[in-house]
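Xylan 1,4-beta-xylosidase
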Amino acid sequence: MIRKQAAYLPAFLALLICHLFPGRSSAQQDTVAIQVHLDKPTGPLQPIWAWFGYDEPNYTYMKDGTKLLTEIAQLSKVPVYVRVHSLLVTGDGQPALKWGSTNAYTEDSRGNPVYDWTIIDKIFDTFIERGMKPLAQIGFMPQALSAKPEPYRHHWRPDQPYGDIFTGWAYPPKDYKKFAALVYEWVRHSVARYGKEEVESWYWELWNEPNIGYWKGTTEEYIKLYDYVADAVKRALPTARIGGPEVTGPNWKDAADFMKTFLDHVVSGTNHVTGKKGAPLDLITFHAKGAPRVVDGVVQMNMGAQLRDIDKGFAIVASYPTLKHLPVIIGESDPEGCAACSENFHPENAYRNGTMYSSYTAASFARKYELAAAHGIQLAGAVTWAFEFEDQPWFAGFRDLATNGVDKPVLNVFRMFGMMQGRRVAVSGDLAYDFSKIRDSSVRGPRADISALAAKDERSATVMVWNYHDNNRPAPATAVAVTISGLPEGKVLLEHYRVDDDHSNAYTAWKEMGAPQQPDAAQVAQLEKSGQLQQLASPEWISTVNGAAVIRMHLPRQGVSLLKCSW
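Tokens:
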């Protein structure tokens, strides 16, 4: 009788799981088989993830800002590029949400330029000291040059309309030549301070999202400003790299039209400065965002929306034969649009503190590689628009990488990316989604997106595995079997890193403490420790059979694992 009951136990448990999680199909209870083919390279593992950005440039040199930048620099073997707004905005350098200033340009009583690089130097010094490099954004408009200088300074809060931020700094210049002179002097100053070779390794770009409120001029006025800026940059340093247009949402008609009008001008338009054909262009930039919402009380992401933006942006670039070879940078590439819009006023952003943000990041970056390959695009970087918000409440639900100096789970996915080296290799198996299916319909089916990104270098292989779904509903962990072929015979050292509710997760630790808003020193130390990347188990030597090894795991919903095999 006991044996008979034991025999029925697995079936009973399966029925129980289906009862508790009715959205979960019986097929999903089975083991998901993933094959990693180390002997089938698919292309270079370009470190497109090693790019970050944020609205508030003055956070750069503040206490938590410098701490986080140090951690970001340390997680990568390659230089990390950083993009920030408001580098030419007039003001006293005091930060606020969606605001920053450097006072780089003012004018004396006679209207003569007064340049002051003190704050810009403080920002860029912070990057350079850590081996980071600027994606130097030329913008926004100094008050003395703005075509509509009043009102200029905004005092936006997350409970206010987003459009309230677009004040005098968003307007075209009243004097294009003076703005060009400012840019020329900025580039010259940078060369003098950091050296020609260093500045040659940077990227320069004009403005941000000129197809929406960030630019209060016309498309043609933006193109005119680009001609003046590109000419100034190249006069100051002929080998500098300059690009644009940083539109957002290429899948929107207005953004696509703006982008194509800009690229048409670069190829065959009449230059506003030289009168000659075309304009210099060394990189092409645009933004791509998802669109979460709350459905039946649960956050539902929309990775498909973000991939459609990327797909359309790549298609536009690929349609220009003379430009297709240029590096493309997705200047902001995120689950949604407003980093400073906390979940307190925007409940759809409640994904940000926990593991949904980290699993979304793993799954979406893998598809960016696939989309670039499909279009033949040279994707150089995808900027994660998330940093930190100084002296804000703990885990307030901003789109950030750390809170009060404590790392969030999403930062540990970037630590995983930093461990991946070499060339991408083929992945196959029982995979419910590929980039085209997610692009077209997002991840909404009964099965989760359980897949992998893998790479191989001379002495190691790395496999990132995720269990992602757009709907943040509870679900049991899934059994996953990862077969890695192409390993050397004998033994390899396996290290298994994990981000889930119980590993590499300071948010869980904070909630278990009772969610303190004034944690004591011991609690802060524990939170800092919990925020670091953790191994699921101790490293172990595993044997290969015919150059293959099978690694089995139970991967929780919204969890991410990194498997590293060394020999």
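The radius of gyration is 25 Å.
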